């Protein structure tokens, strides 16, 4: 196996930058359960400001931020309408049912993107006593499992307007919302305007070691503090984490275009490999999901032998995610190694 591993499994594998480590070492801290950690307070205030909201809360993970939002907006027995391959559906451990007593009603979007016309027929808001009522609309931008696809601004606005017209709250899983804003050439406040709550992650392409923020109104975030504590997410001197988070928020978004360019480069190279398929034009951000004629798990294992780590996202699909810790040269190298691994699979078939 090659020793210089190129890790493209996820942008969650990024390590804190030297500036983050220095800020962590000297962070001013206090007990955040008493709201006395000055660095967390600064991070929360800054996130609210950047998103144009009243308040925000620092949570350990994106999953926790999403689940707090889900509980905030719903009551037991309701439905949450989301895209069929959204993170809340596939990767959050059935917590909509466990923590909020809700079920998910999924709708298939085009490349993960939901339009109002897709969603409207799935809503139950008429008050019919014999149907589970829709309690919440859920959008994921960028859409992870659809390959980092971006919901454009006009569609975000259409979804918000639709939710309003039916008196429904709308939450955004914006784990990678800075990637979406970068791809669209807009800012996150504009892109997320009108969403009742937005969850975004510092720990993915923005390189912080830990943490996400949920933004919303004062009243929602006050209630979110109770729910975070209920989930065991009341942290103490977590200003050491928020210090890295502040750098992630202020300094890292501006470089995300590099990850997008590297993803395009990888997709273009992969599209030339026999037995692998992807349309590079469909790659908009830092996620590349390609189809393979051979077994995806076997290909991933063969890629690992060549020193490239990736994830199988289905029996015939493989995900590569670019990030701060893989350079353009490393991506070029990864493409060559993927070609070797794919050729081995073809020769085995
Ligand atoms: N995504 C992870 C895995 O869980 C799949 C990854 O490697 O991409 N929303 C979206 C859209 C996400 O992609 C993720 C993480 C989350 C929420 C949850 O964030 P964490 O991992 O902090 O709980």
Give an account of the 3D structure.
The chain is α/β, with parallel strands linked by helices. The chain is globular and about 60 Å long. The longest helix has 21 residues, at 328-348. The strands form three sheets. Strands 2-8-7-6-5-3-4 form a seven-stranded mixed sheet, with helices on both faces. It has a four-stranded antiparallel sheet with strand order 9-10-13-12. The mean pLDDT is 97. Helices cover 42% and strands 16% of the residues. The two termini are 22 Å apart. The chain has 14 helices and 13 strands. It folds into two domains: 6-13 and 255-348, Aspartate Aminotransferase, domain 1, CATH 3.90.1150.10; 18-253, 3-Layer(aba) Sandwich (Aspartate Aminotransferase, domain 2), CATH 3.40.640.10. The protein binds ligand TLP. The site of ligand TLP has 15 residues, from helix 3.
Count of DSSP E strands?
Answer: 13
> What integer value in Å does the Rg equal?
21 Å
Sheet bearing the most strands, described? Answer: 7 strands, mixed
Give the CA-CA distance, first to last residue. 22 Å
Total number of distinct structural domains: 2
Overall outline: globular
Enumerate the strands of the largest sheet in spatial order, edge to edge or round the barrel.
Answer: 2-8-7-6-5-3-4
Q: Report the average pLDDT across residues.
A: 97
**Poorly predicted regions:** none
Q: What's the CATH topology label of the largest domain?
A: Aspartate Aminotransferase, domain 2
Residue share in helix: 40-55%
Strand % is: 15-25%
Architecture per CATH nomenclature, i.e. the level-2 architecture of the largest domain: 3-Layer(aba) Sandwich
């Amino acid at each position: 196996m090659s020793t210089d591993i190129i890790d493209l499994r996820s942008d969650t594998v990024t390590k804190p930058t030297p500036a983050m480590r220095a800020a962590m070492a000297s962070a001013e801290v206090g007990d955040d359960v008493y709201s006395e950690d000055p660095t967390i307070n600064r991070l929360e205030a800054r996130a609210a400001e950047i998103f144009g909201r009243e308040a925000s809360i620092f949570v350990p993970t994106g999953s926790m931020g999403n689940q707090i939002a889900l509980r905030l907006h719903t009551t037991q027995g309701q439905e949450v309408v989301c895209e069929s391959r959204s993170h809340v559906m596939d990767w959050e451990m059935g917590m909509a049912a466990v923590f909020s007593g809700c079920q998910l009603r999924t709708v298939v979007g085009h490349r993960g993107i939901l339009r109002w016309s897709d969603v409207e027929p799935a809503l139950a808001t008429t008050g019919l006593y014999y149907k589970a009522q829709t309690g919440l609309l859920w959008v994921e931008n960028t859409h992870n499992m659809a390959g980092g696809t971006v919901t454009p601004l006009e569609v975000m606005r259409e979804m918000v307007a639709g939710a309003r017209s039916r008196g429904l709250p709308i939450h955004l899983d914006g784990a990678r919302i800075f990637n979406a804003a970068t791809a669209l050439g807009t800012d996150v406040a504009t892109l997320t305007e009108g969403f009742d709550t937005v969850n975004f992650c510092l720990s993915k392409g923005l390189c912080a070691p830990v943490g996400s923020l949920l933004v919303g109104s004062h009243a929602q975030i006050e209630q979110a503090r109770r729910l975070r504590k209920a989930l065991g997410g009341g942290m103490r001197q977590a200003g050491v984490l928020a210090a890295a988070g502040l750098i992630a928020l202020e300094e890292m978004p501006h470089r995300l275009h590099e990850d997008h360019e590297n993803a395009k480069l990888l997709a273009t190279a992969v599209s030339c490999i026999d037995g692998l398929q992807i349309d590079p034009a469909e790659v908009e951000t830092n996620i590349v999901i390609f189809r393979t004629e051979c077994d995806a798990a076997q290909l991933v294992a063969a890629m690992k032998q060549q020193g490239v780590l990736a994830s199988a996202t289905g029996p015939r699909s493989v995900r590569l995610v670019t990030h701060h810790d893989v350079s353009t040269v490393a991506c070029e190298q990864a493409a060559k190694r993927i070609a070797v691994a794919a050729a081995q699979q073809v020769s085995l078939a």
